[in-house]
Amino acid sequence: MAAVLLALGVSLSCACAIADSTLAAKPERRSNHPSAHAPAHAKTPPAEVTLTPNQSSAGVPVTMAPVGLSLEYPTMAEDLGAGACPAAALVSQLQALGSPPLSLAGDSQDLTAPSGALPNPAASWETATLYQLPAGFWSQLHCLLNATHDPLTVGLNAKTGSLAWTSQMVTGAQSAATNGVDFSLGNEPDLYYLPNYASLSRPVPGEEAAAVNAYLQVAEQLQPALAGAPVIGPELARPVHWRAQLPRVIAALHAQTVGVHLYPLTACTTPKAVTIRGLLSAQAGNLPRSLQWVVADAAAAHVPAIISEANSASCGGVAGVSDSPASAVWAVRFVLAALATGFQEVRFHFSGAPYDPFVVRGESVLARPLDSALVALNQWLPVGATLRTLAGVRGLQASSIFVPAIAPGAQLPPGADKAPAPGAGTTTVILDNERARAQPVVLRGARTVRVQTFTSLRAGLQTAQLSAHRGRIRLTVAPNSVLAIAPVP
């Protein structure tokens, strides 16, 4: 085990108790960082981690921004405001997130009509329930993307199945995009045509094949409007419903990206069941691992897989849980589990509800605790990094992120006369305490480290710089918290 961990850039030595403080030059001085206090009664042996550059090629490569955004059409329209261009605060917010992929999707995808497409007054009850895009929507969106350069995914209405509407939406999307655009044909088609089978004791024979056939027939009718543009899908609500048919759907859609939805909790029928304890459970954080077979199906088709819609709880989440500091801890766990499983990205959903990572209010943006986690994840995991899961760290879930000094194939920075040595770069260790008891840790191999912490009790990313004493840095990982530890040059 020691040899394996050394190859991965992290080593564990004997878990012996350390009596002296190692947070500053003087033994009696301690950091006031929230994760740097061990309770006086704690007797848990410390884990020992050595921070060394990680030169191993094993692990999961980061090939796209690990975090993206998915917005309902009305939410996006409201955030764009009434002017020709959106508020500068929204631009700054997306730039702080690293200009991640931005999707127009969700339930409104199959309820949206192009501007001017609906009769007034409505010709039917079905028409009256549709949402019509504002006249300047695509122009406003272009102004936003021109400043932020987010890649764009545009969801198309497959329930209505109008080829003319699809053509208008594709044209509008292409006029707005500045850094690439792909399209999604329908939202959660596995829920389209099914009656309430939950009350039946047995599944209906052929149910899955019938639903797939109906969806693919509509998708085929809409394909001419795409003119070969990239497709993401099939945006399944419960992928297991179409498990046997997914390879056929991927092939029929000519999908360049496989996208599925995943929520650990649901507020649709029993919001009281959405609790902080449930959100912080290992099951909620590790749920992406249950869809490893989706990744395998995508790999067999030679395309990437992403979780194209996710958040703390379906149906908008629950106030006090989805907008609590615990949501940030959950998000870090969920994204790391998704990447380790083979998904290349997770897109967090906005619907004007408690789980939205941030809210636009006129000319300002109100960031919720979840937002800080998304910003940190895209900073910790840049494209070109490698993520590894580390086993054997006492009492903790551990990962390492190796970021090379220069990405493969990239040009040398100005003034550099030669490329960095092979394996040169930085390693960040992520420590996650899923338990209700604090876990002490002894760090070796660095004189000074930067520790960034998310806890379930305090909003925002807390940062401290700690220095070694006698070659060791001692800290404590608080219950239900996540730490990112990186050496300071």
Q: How do the strands of the widest beta sheet line up side by side? A: 3-4-7-8-9-10-12-14
Assembly state of the chains shown: single chain
What's the CATH first level of the largest domain?
Alpha Beta
Class based on secondary structure composition and strand pairing: alpha/beta
Helix content: 25-40%
Which fold name fills CATH's third level, the topology of the largest domain? TIM Barrel
- Alpha-carbon distance between the termini? 29 Å
Structure keywords:
489 residues, alpha/beta, Immunoglobulin-like, TIM Barrel, 8-stranded parallel beta barrel, 7-stranded antiparallel sheet, 24 strands, 26% helix, globular, disordered N terminus
What's the quick description here?
By secondary structure, the chain is of the alpha/beta class. It is built from 13 helices and 24 strands.
Describe the structure.
This protein folds into 2 domains: 2-60 and 385-410 and 419-487, Golgi alpha-mannosidase II (Immunoglobulin-like), CATH 2.60.40; 64-380, TIM Barrel. The protein has 489 residues and is an alpha/beta fold. It is built from 13 helices and 24 strands. The strands form 6 sheets. It has an 8-stranded parallel beta barrel, surrounded by 6 helices. A hairpin with a 6-residue loop joins strand 21 and strand 22 (462-467). The two termini are 29 Å apart.
Secondary-structure map:
Elements: H1 2-8, E1 47-50, E2 60-61, E3 67-71, H2 73-80, H3 88-96, E4 102-104, E5 112-113, H4 125-128, E6 131-132, H5 137-148, E7 152-156, H6 163-176, E8 181-185, H7 207-226, E9 231-236, H8 246-253, E10 257-262, E11 265-266, H9 276-279, H10 282-285, H11 292-300, E12 305-310, E13 313-314, H12 326-341, E14 346-350, E15 358-361, E16 364-367, H13 369-380, E17 386-390, E18 397-404, E19 425-433, E20 439-444, E21 448-455, E22 462-467, E23 473-477, E24 481-487
Parallel strand pairs: 1-20, 3-4, 3-14, 4-7, 5-6, 7-8, 8-9, 9-10, 10-12, 11-13, 12-14
Antiparallel strand pairs: 2-17, 15-16, 17-18, 18-19, 19-24, 20-23, 21-22, 21-24
Helix pairs in contact: 5-6, 6-7, 12-13
